[in-house]
Amino acid sequence: MDTSKRFKDSAGGANIKCEACRDVLCNCSTEVVTAFHRVERRSVEPCLFGKGGTCCRHCNMGPCQIIEGVDEMVGVCGADAPTVAARNFARTVAAGSATHIDHGRGIALAFLSAAKGENAYGIKDKVKLRQTAVRYGIDIADKDAKDLAIELGEKIIKEFGQQEGGISLMKRAPAPRQELWKLLNLWPRGIDREVVELMHRTHMGVDQEYQHLIHGAARCALTDGWGASMIATELSDIMFGTPVPIRTKINIGVLKKDEVNITVHGHEPVVAEALAMAANDPEIIAEAKRVGAKGINLAGVCCTGNEILMRRGLPIAGSFIQQETVLATGAVEAMVVDVQCVMQGLSNVAGRFHTELITTSDKAMISGATHIQFDEHHAIESAKTILRKAISKFTERGKYYIPLYQSDVVAGFSHETIDYMLGGRFRDSYKPLNDNIINGRIRGVAAIVGCDNFRVNDETHYELAKELIANDILVVATGCAASTIGRHGLLSPEAISLAGSGLREVLEAVGCPPVLHMGSCVDNSRILIALTEMVKTGGLGKDIPDLPAVGCAPQWMSEKAVAIGHYFVASGARVIFGPNFPTSGSKVVTDYLFNGMLEKYGAVWDVASTANDFANKMIDAINMKRAALGIDKKSERVLFDMAMRRDIGSIHGVGCQGPGH
Q: Which domains are delineated in the chain?
């Protein structure tokens, strides 16, 4: 693995790494070790049992390493490979879902506080507020925004702790999918309940039938996608504004030599939004100027970066794999972190420079970091405290290097934006998209989502996206996958030239890039809604499995990615992971996930390793859906003459019948 090349590429410059010390800066006295180096230095390959999901450590009789089909290689308790692999898979789904559920709960609580006027956030999208309230069965007549928001917030928060009753937003799915979920007993009863039950079922000596475990994981995952993640997205839009197309930049080159550089890293937008508001305060700007800076440069990292990119146009300095490299430039005064995907190694890198690493959540502390508890009820005051800490570090900046490279991107493609761009203000509809899929200009839709990973070639996301758009497939992207694709220029309208002729024709008419940036990890719920709208618009089948659409996570890293993938499969969308799969140690479980789930759920998992493998499987999957719909061949265009038009009119009783009729 040539991590040397990847290190340079990811940092965004060609000559930033000292060949003598193999560090980011040409300063051999500075020992900067990042994850790129740690991966390169690891001489031991990952444990095959752990990698394949057949290592069980759920009790103190183990750990037990299981080999499928070998009688003596079962657990002390007798657990075989299918049980262990399914149990580990289910626990991964539970953990991944829990992160989004806790995120969703936090947004819901902040939303309720905003509705009551207890924090600095407000209600920016009142139209979406009313639409969401209706989805929760609230009578919106004669209610002002404040009262409506309070009632909605209270109702949503109850869904987290309820034991029965179901999750309201699942009613947004196509009707056939809802009926299937009810038939299979997959409709979640309460958001928190499903995670707790799944953790119980995966305890030693409880659920020991692999298909039943996978089924329980599906119900838990649906709680994530159609529950907490969708709640987080919808309420964030209402509070902070529903994203619309906005042009900005991505990559480490967005750091500025003459401003106080503050990077915001994590997943919860309440911190980043407060910092963005406070950074424009004249008092804070004046303080920055007093220390010799021209102002405050706020930039995102990881999914918080995607959040503020979508809504405020603030640049993204780096993705997950770039987080340490961003600090290793020596140009960052402070990195402000909240939760999820934050590496402990940041503390060591920050310690080599003047950089202040600031934690803000009582859920996530890091040794060596400065903790400033963020209080959403005093959001601006908390943000100003953090900003002042960063400003105080500006005069301590020593030797630094900011790469020149940065890419132009256009982001902000929420479901509402796509709806509007396709049909306009008065005819917003997915019909133009469906029509162009039916007529063959667009072959289908593909989602590239999820993490980036130090163990995978950094080019995979880009090469895959480039291959898909060349084959007339519209691509949507979220998370760090979107950031990677953006670094390579595919989130810009200028990249339309790389699209196939049919897709290019549509994109030029609509005016959007060939890859649509739809947001952060939780915003994968936007893709669920887009798929649902395609079904409801008509012409492409009756349920999500009928659509010529497919999703993938080529560089999955976190447990969240598995939860996301499983709720897409349970929703009827085929998902391809790479470069490996967490149940590969059990052929029985893997075969069920890759083939057996099709009969019940209408969709399956799959795995691929290279960009070419992904592209082939995704294009084949879309082509099969087109064939099943009978739209795999282009129909010849028919020019109607007057006689044919009269025939149509007489059939429908609307033909021209002359004056007086």
A: 76-238 (1.20.1270.30), 252-396 (3.40.50.2030), 408-629 (3.40.50.2030)
Helix (H/G/I), strand (E/B), else coil: 472: coil
Measured between alpha carbons, how far is 304 from 270 in angstroms, rounded to an integer? 9
Helix, strand, or coil (residue 316): strand
Beta bridge partners of 336: 264, 358
Q: What SS3 class is residue 446?
A: strand
pLDDT band at 27 (very low <50, low <70, confident <90, very high): very low
Token pair listed for 47: 């444990």
Nearest partner of 349 among 374, 373, 366, judged by Cα? 366
How many whole angstroms separate alpha carbon 94 and alpha carbon 72? 30
Query: Whole-model pTM?
Result: 0.90
Q: Omega into 579 within 30° of 0, i.e. cis?
A: yes
CA-closest candidate to residue 224, choices 660, 585, 566, 588: 566
Close Cβ partners of 216 (under 8 Å, ≥ 6 residues apart) = 90, 197, 198, 201, 207
End-to-end CA distance of the chain: 78
Residue with tokens 């995979």: 460
Residues 6+ apart with CB under 8 A from 407: 249, 250, 251, 486, 487, 488, 489, 491, 492
| Cα–Cα distance measured from residue 188 to residue 223, given in angstroms and rounded to the nearest whole number | 6
In angstroms, the Cα distances linking 15 to 133, 352, 497 are 54, 21, 30
Query: What are the pLDDT digits (tens) for 396-454?
Result: 999 999 998 899 999 999 988 888 777 655 566 889 999 999 999 999 999 999 999 98
Which residues make Cβ contacts (< 8 Å) with residue 368, sequence separation at least 6?
Answer: 347, 348, 350, 351, 357
Q: What crossing angle do the helices spanning 81-115 and 145-161 adopt, rounded to 10°?
A: 160
Under 8 Å between Cβ of 125 and 152 = no
**Token duo for residue 437:** 């899929």
Beta strands in 221-311 (DSSP E): 246-250, 260-265, 296-301
Would you state the structure tokens that stand for residue 651, as one six-digit string? 């059939």
Q: How far apart are CA 464 and CA 188, in angstroms?
A: 35
For the ranges 23-27, 288-292, 588-592, which has the lowest average pLDDT?
A: 23-27
State the DSSP code for 368: T
Among the listed residues 176, 259, 191, the one whose alpha carbon sits nearest the alpha carbon of residue 228: 191
Nearest to residue 450, comparing CAs of 552, 533, 340?
A: 552
From CA 504, how far away is CA 535, in angstroms rounded? 23
Determine the distance from the C-alpha atom of residue 196 to the mean position of all C-alpha atoms in its chain, rounded to a whole number: 24
Cα separation, 1 vs 334, in Å, equals 32
> Does residue 538 contact residue 434 with C-beta atoms inside 8 Å?
yes
DSSP3 helix / strand / coil % (the chain, rounded to 5): 50, 10, 40
Where residue 511 falls (left for φ over 0; alpha for ψ -120 to 50; beta otherwise) is: left
Closest of 353, 312, 321 to residue 335, by C-alpha: 353
Among 66-70, 220-224, 376-380, the minimum mean pLDDT is found in: 66-70
